[in-house]
């Protein structure tokens, strides 16, 4: 082997030796340093700074990449990082310099390098710094327990307690992992606050009794999963202009109980945002369980209108219970899907669509709410395959809505099964099952040109009631075991009512208006009748009580599904 080759190998070994990660210890006795700042100054990439039990006053600024800052309980408890710097510590490091100003509060740890890990500390004392203008964190987030300005970092297994301001803040920071932290008692700020920070993972954190839970602003593609977010003074999760957010398998409960502000205390709030809300438990929050809203909608002529709009959200598989207002509420949003949720005992509606078009509510189980599913000026929305029970008011309510549909829903034990009100038109109410209602279906308030077909209504006071309704089609329905089958008031005109099975009711029909009870060849079935020619139509006409209306072609055989 030549001399040059030998020297090259020696240099390579020396380089590798120099580049090997070192473990630097910090503590009162027997350690490399007793100040964390000094350890940071001496550290190289890949080094581990191990901080022993004790309390450390810090305003750390980490600028070395691939660094691990780790707490180690050496018998005196988890190491505590207290935000600020004490005069006593300055005295120890620079004797005689007592004229230096003591600083308390501020940010405990600022991470400005990539691939940094901070784990296993108690972090406390984060407040506005004294003097107030000390520190450099005057941005959208402000001071925080740990403030991240960089990418691919990990914040894990820390406990944040006794802080006035935000525990964990991310500013222009992406692809970070925030895992297994406990955050409690943030009195003015957020447990976590992300601003312009993307593709971060927030997982398995316990967030309890803070001012706010998790806030995202202009932050896309973040994942919030398996966290417990409870007893915040305000909202549990609040996302503004943050798209492709995945909020899954969290427990979000009892938020907003102590809020000073009306409307705060939502479990999850998406404003001008788009994302997935799946398999969460959302319970006993002061306001809505899930709230999705567009912002600046009044300036929008043709939705969607960019980042200010909420649309194409998927709300699926959540258990939503006992919230102070609606279980799920969507305002001024489009093309959302609310699917397979269990929504029970909320103190408003189960699901509300307010000025929200082209949405779908499918396969939900909604019990014990005001209105099970409520559509207010929400056009072309589909309400399909839901089970709605024990409502205080209405199973499904359409209010001033155009072109929507209700198909194959089961509605039990509600005062009104389906209600069509306030000039709603072009609706398709098809193949629903309604049982034990005061009014099975109510069409009123100038509602017109709706189709009510193939429904099954039983054990109700009135199967279908029309009040001020015009030009609606009511056909192929089975109404039985009710006091009255179909009733129309004096202001209901031009409705076509035929092909329905009205047998088995106390009174089949009553009409004070001017409506059509047959289509010119067949009417409705009221019970067995004579049919000499075998065409299924009785030989004589049938007068409809209440006015001058006549079914000219009553059926001799059962009609409808």
From TrEMBL:
Q: Where is this region: Disordered?
A: 501-521
Q: Which UniProt keywords apply?
A: Repeat, Ubl conjugation pathway
Pathway noted in the entry: Protein modification; protein ubiquitination
Instruction: Name the InterPro entries on file.
Output: NosD_dom (IPR007742), Para_beta_helix_rpt-2 (IPR022441), PbH1 (IPR006626), Pectin_lyas_fold (IPR012334), Pectin_lyase_fold/virulence (IPR011050), SCF-Subunits/Alg-Epimerases (IPR051550)
Residue ranges occupied by any Periplasmic copper-binding protein NosD beta helix domain in the UniProt entry:
145-257, 390-527
Name of protein:
Cell surface protein
* Organism in which the protein naturally occurs: Methanothrix harundinacea
